[in-house]
Amino acid sequence: MLNKYPLWKTLMVLFIVAISALYAAPNLYGEDPAVQISGLRGFVASETTKANVESTLKENQIEYMNAEFEKDQVLVRFKNTEDQLRARDLLDEKIGEEYSVALNLTPATPDWLAAVGGAPMKLGLDLSGGVSFLMEVNMNEAILKAENGMVGDFRTDLRGEKIRYKGVKRTDNGIEIRLRNAEDLDAAETFLSRRYRDFIFDENSDDLTLTAIMTEQKLKETREYALQQNITIIRNRVNELGVAEPLVQRQGQKHIVIELPGIQDTAKAKKILNATATIEFRMVDTDGDLNAALSGRVPASSQLLNQRDTNRPILLKKRVMLTGDHIVDAKSGFDEYSRPQVNITLDSPGGSKFSNATKNNIGKPMAVVFIEYKPTGRVDAEGNTIFEKVEEVISAPTIQARLGKSFRITGAGSQAEAHDLALLLRAGALIAPIQIVEERTVGPSLGAENVQLGLQAIVIGFIAVCIFMVIYYRAFGIVADVALTVNLIMIIGVMSMIPGATLTLPGMAGIVLTVGMAVDANVLIFERIREELRNGKSVQQAIHQGYDAAYSTILDANITTLIAAFVLFAVGTGPIKGFAVTLSIGIITSMFTAILLTRTIVNGVWGGRRLEKLPI
Amino acid sequence: MQIMNFEKPIDFMRFRKPALMLSVFVMLMCVVSLATNKLNFGLDFTGGTLIEVGFEQPADLTKLRSVLDSNGYDDAVVQLYGSSRDVVIRLGVREDVKAETLGDQVLSVLREGTGQNIDMRRIEFVGASVGDNLAEQGGLAMLTVLICILVYVSFRFEWRFAVGAVVALFHDVLLTLGLFSVLGLEFDLTVLAALLAVIGYSLNDTIVVSDRIRENFRKVRDEETGQIINISLTQTLGRTFITSLTTIIVLLALFFKGGALIHGFATALLFGVFIGTYSSIYIASSLALTLGVSKEDLIPEVIEKEGADQEEMMP
Description:
The complex is a heterodimer.
Chain A: H1 7-24, E1 31-39, H2 47-59, E2 66-70, E3 73-77, H3 81-95, E4 99-107, H4 111-115, E5 122-123, H5 125-128, E6 130-137, H6 139-160, E7 165-171, E8 174-179, H7 182-195, E9 199-204, E10 209-214, H8 216-241, E11 247-251, E12 255-261, H9 266-274, E13 277-284, H10 290-294, E14 302-307, E15 313-323, E16 327-334, E17 340-346, H11 348-358, E18 366-379, E19 385-395, E20 406-410, H12 415-428, E21 434-442, H13 444-497, E22 502-503, H14 505-534, H15 539-571, H16 574-606
Parallel strand pairs in A: 5-22, 14-19
Antiparallel strand pairs in A: 1-3, 1-4, 2-3, 6-12, 6-21, 7-8, 8-10, 9-10, 11-12, 13-15, 13-18, 14-15, 16-17, 17-20, 18-19
Helix pairs in contact in A: 1-13, 6-8, 8-12, 13-14, 13-16, 14-15, 14-16, 15-16
Chain B: H1 16-36, E1 40-41, H2 43-46, E2 48-54, H3 61-70, E3 77-81, E4 83-91, H4 99-114, E5 119-126, H5 128-156, H6 159-183, E6 186-187, H7 189-219, H8 225-257, H9 263-290, H10 295-298
């Protein structure tokens, strides 16, 4: 029969609508102020941490709604922000050394909704308030540093091969090796080009020089490495900031995006992002008396430091064998007995330095010291944050043999700890300097205002369009309005379901625009039905033909708009991406609601019946 | 209720030549304005620092300017933003100060100078190189969109329609840019997004019209091409009018209620909707006609019902 849907089709449409409504629902329940506690460095939050936090709160009579432990984090919800702030200050004081204590707003999604994965939409920084940075990695420096490292390598290798050279230096055109005669030049060329396949060697027999330049591949690798390494460092530092849900992401070839929602003190954030952390290798003072040192009699050439994992003091020599800026790479792995280890690679000057320093100390323990400048939270007279130098021993392995350019550290504990150590070692050595090239700070008041304005525009636009449609298309207008309402719910539902989707102010503008344009499909269909009716078709024929004829037009028109939205998504950043996302989702959901949903309703109400005319 | 219901087709194509001449003239004007007035590029493109602050009382701009002047920020542009309590301060790219700390510095200078409680609403700093990059990317995005659309429309319709559609889009983008240049409105990232949305909207319109022309080529016999286009345009006029109206309704809501940040976006789109509607008639369709589109080009050898291949997905 014409214009009757089989039951399954109707049910399917209703099912899709119900699912979207379900996932849109969490947006109705606001947010609870919360404090989020996660472990720093070696520390991992656990059930014990949770119990600890709870008892601390109870002792100090701070009321809280509940505390949860999930995904290595403890989350405590509060009734009001006053309790939340008090709790944050208290916890930061008690356990701030080992854990980051961050303020957060946690969705107050009911358990049954959270159980099916329901969560409200994420708000972009322009709506939630916060700061975003774009940092640029100085790639020239990275390449320069890599080339400087190679100068030493070339020298060592040529010496090893007994090829005599006049000099090796880095120039703007690559690394220049000057030799004494033509035989040496040939020998050097043959030897080096075989050994360093990622360099291109250019021989100049006139002035007896050999020039080495990096291959494209090697240049690319060097840049990639510098970027990845900086991202690791930044991520570590951001974790130290105690911001809930920070985002650190690469963007393109040399940029890193950092988004810190809700942060107020941007000056502090900038300082920490630009702050330095470094590594030093020092010998353990085995001759000194630890107990004497603990009671205050520390030998002049030694220093008392804490070990991070055990928190026990250890006596170290003050003399630094090697600093972390010589570390080129650090990776965690396993040794032949499948115990976790960290493989460290040094640059050549570092290698020879280390080799000299360790040759007489075989069998003795060495210490890896992690040095960091941390903000104390206090400010000086000029309002600048005071930084505190924190030194910690992260590992104290025994030297097994004379160490060179690459060596390994075992005894770092578990595999996770080895991994962390490798990360810290890498984090200590900044390969390339970074610089903030873009910063956007949105105050919380503006964020809230943006949400309000955006909502207002959506509501006003929506109501106006709904009224217009009813006046113009009567009963069919109501059908279109239902479709429009469901469309809004579906956009919100889909936005809440997709993990990466963020609602921004332009995104809200996108929703407004979708409201206006989504009715287009219905207008096309309804105009077509009217036209068919005018041409003397029967009611059922008109409905059928109307939907049929409008279908391919709607499809073509929407696909082309989708193309524009996709390109926008590909090139846009931040808020603009948000616009592209809502626009794309809106186009797709509007096709569903404007065609399938309205047809279901139209079929249900008017389909398959003998009618003289339609209320259109 | 019905507004656009015509017994006879309107002879749109009669005004084809004057309309085309008008379009070419306006486009030239836009090019001239873009060359002389340039675009008032926003911070996103030029780089620099922008600080938005909120006051409890209506702000005294003269005082703010003198405070900034006396502290060495004599290049600062101070403007009200949205309301009398909101002020935006723009500073160019500076050599002497580390730009990333500039925002905080200006804020403290203002707090001291005015002795008022100032609410920091927004600080944006964009490095000069980032801005250049963005302008390049934006241009590239436009070009990519146009090429993708050219390909898709050629594939779904016919190359003459594709050329018509793309020229119409180019026309819309150029005119919107021209408007921003003539009025000196700020061109920022949201306007760029709006421009791409204009492309989407205008294209929507063009496709609907082209689709009808194709359909009528198959259905209507014994009419010349121009007349078929007229018939198609008349038939779709009702839809064009209603959709433009609903879109304009929501855009007005956005323009008046969406706040200052979204103003440029709404302006570009409002203008774009008008231009887009015009261009789908007088650029896209009339260009296809000028290029000599005819029945034979659009009637496939085996006549199949439109959308027949999508039968299974049919509602």
